[in-house]
């Protein structure tokens, strides 16, 4: 590994020795974009059915010309698609090589929508749904292009929901991912905003075959079709349309995609352009390297690092090279080896590179001075931006990168794919064809290059396979069948489907249906309905009418069928540790990887003497499941230093919150067993508060006082007992800050629970009066720290692990100040003591006590 001292010491001798990459070419060769001399924008003839409107169109042109300010001509592919995209409203699919300007087709479709819609374009809504990285890229460009026309663009890729609806209210173009749009449209029947969408743009439509993401895209398309059918039935006169426009660089069976995107009666049109229309010609090279049978993937990957310098020297033509690596570590190692092995410094402007390198926060990345940078999701955002910029400007000759998605923005003259294997959920598998094409697609910078090279480095044994792959592409199949059960359930809950006929209609609207007719053996489906009913998620009666039951929860919390199945098997005796283990095993975490460099910090956490990990795992940390389980440590309020781990922690919390809520509802619903119900309540609370239930850091939950934890003011009572001025002194703040903090603590609800046995003994049951009191109700009338949705759950269990009583006490208790109820307690076989628990939805305000019943 290179350290920063190495960099500084060796700079002078390294520079200028043998520069193999230099800055952008000074003169530009004629671009093949213009060779075909396609029509310029101003001269595009109107098609026949638009003849009468030709005049008004020409005025419209002036208006929309600004969208295409970047270039003087439409290229060949765009010119070919123009008639279909701009002059008809038919659904449309294009397959054209990477870098052939397909984004313009989406822009033209938006313009068509504007042309069709009378101004003001208040209710115009178009949705663009590609992968996340493309969203941001397009967002930046479309803001500039469509903003001046008065259109608002909105990027929606986060995890929130409530505000999103507010945000899209005034947006005309919504840039989102299929996943996000899936969650947004789950309540489409209640939301008229979603029913305004008239144009749905699908970039990289080959994603439909992706095993995890493809199914989501399919159901989203089907749902948009259902939205359209619904609004047409509500308002048949309005003649509303819903247009789908899709594009990809790799669809051998494009007619199937066109069939899928066709509307009833109107066939979608398509454009199929082969590689010969690639504006930057691409040379594809596949290199095989020896790998002995007992060599691990890891070692093989490592060995490739040492071949890299040579490959770059041979194929880069002294222009920017991008190296795709399968792991973060791999990207870092390659960069370090390259920086030692070769001299990648351009002669003219290394000053700029030095300047960039000096602004980099991560010292390891300072090896940028040697002309090599690396880039992955674990690199801090500001560093990543700097590196991307330096690379795009041609200042950084070589960049190694981990993520494909992150490479989207980064065209290079040479693309090298270092090894065709990647790590997915802890195991090694080959890149998908779509992934490879995406990576290869980064080769060629249309502004500077007329040719480009992509090199695939693989094992000798797999060389032929990749040679073949480069020369043809695999048919796109649906991947909906493998997730059909979850999606079918969601649509039933959404009421898109309420009987078997509707289920069949829905299936007919999918890509799965199109492909299943052509390739039936590839797919197998009523089986899924049976799976759902087998664990009680839906009810099917004799006439096979379908009704959702627990399936509602599955859809509401968006969890996988396997996770539901796992929780349906809860025995009832589970304690907190068992439940955490169960949550850690959920399918939702299957993409969390255990990285080599994380094992050590995780093992340290697991053995931590301060007991941040309340339930240590036996043995060494070996699986990603164990890693997820160690989320416990974070609940113990320690700060995790490792950046990658922190990122995963955030993700684990997001999913964990959902799953723990689900387990809370599931166990409550079935009253499985006192222990499981109580602990799932506690666990859900811990996830919500991001703290252990009995954590000494409960005060962290109050927004203003995070800093106090460091000063030892960890509990509410300590804060309450401290004088306001003293608090200010400790925190170095001005009055009335201290008083404000004390106020918020004083105004937290404080409960008490009392039980009283009522006279009259029967031997088998006893009558108990339970009361919950809000001790400080008077204080809370004027002001309350707890929000309106704050609630407490009262749960009583007996020594046979039976739930005797369970009730959620919400807002009404906060308002009325007290609650009481007479309950019957049947005699348990194992003892007469009952456990009484009041668990609050957040804050450390719980009460847990015992009560002995007399019979
Ligand atoms: N008519 C044109 N003249 C000149 N440059 C163009 C033209 N159309 C697009 N470009 C440029 O070509 C580059 C590639 O365009 P774009 O990203 O739309 O390609 P793509 O077909 O979507 O590729 P991919 O399959 O990799 O997503 C962009 O930099 C774009 O500005
Ligand atoms: Mg594109």
From TrEMBL:
EC number: 5.6.2.4
Keyword Transmembrane helix belongs to the record: no
Annotated keywords: ATP-binding, Helicase, Hydrolase, Isomerase, Meiosis, Metal-binding, Nucleotide-binding, Zinc, Zinc-finger
Cofactor(s) named in the record: Zn(2+)
Taxonomy, superkingdom: Eukaryota
Residue span(s) of domain Helicase ATP-binding: 83-269
Record-level Gene Ontology MF annotations: 3'-5' DNA helicase activity; ATP binding; hydrolase activity; nucleic acid binding; zinc ion binding
Catalytic activity: ATP + H2O = ADP + phosphate + H(+); Couples ATP hydrolysis with the unwinding of duplex DNA by translocating in the 3'-5' direction
UniProt cross-references to InterPro entries, sorted A to Z: DEAD/DEAH_box_helicase_dom, Helicase_ATP-bd, Helicase_C-like, Meiotic_Crossover_Helicase, P-loop_NTPase, Sec63-dom, WH-like_DNA-bd_sf, WH_DNA-bd_sf
Pfam families named in the record: DEAD, Helicase_C, Sec63, WHD_SNRNP200
Catalytic class of the enzyme: isomerase
One GO term (biological process): reciprocal meiotic recombination
Domain Helicase C-terminal: 310-492
Job description of the protein: Required for crossover formation and complete synapsis of homologous chromosomes during meiosis.
Family per similarity comment: Belongs to the helicase family. SKI2 subfamily.
Protein name: Probable ATP-dependent DNA helicase HFM1
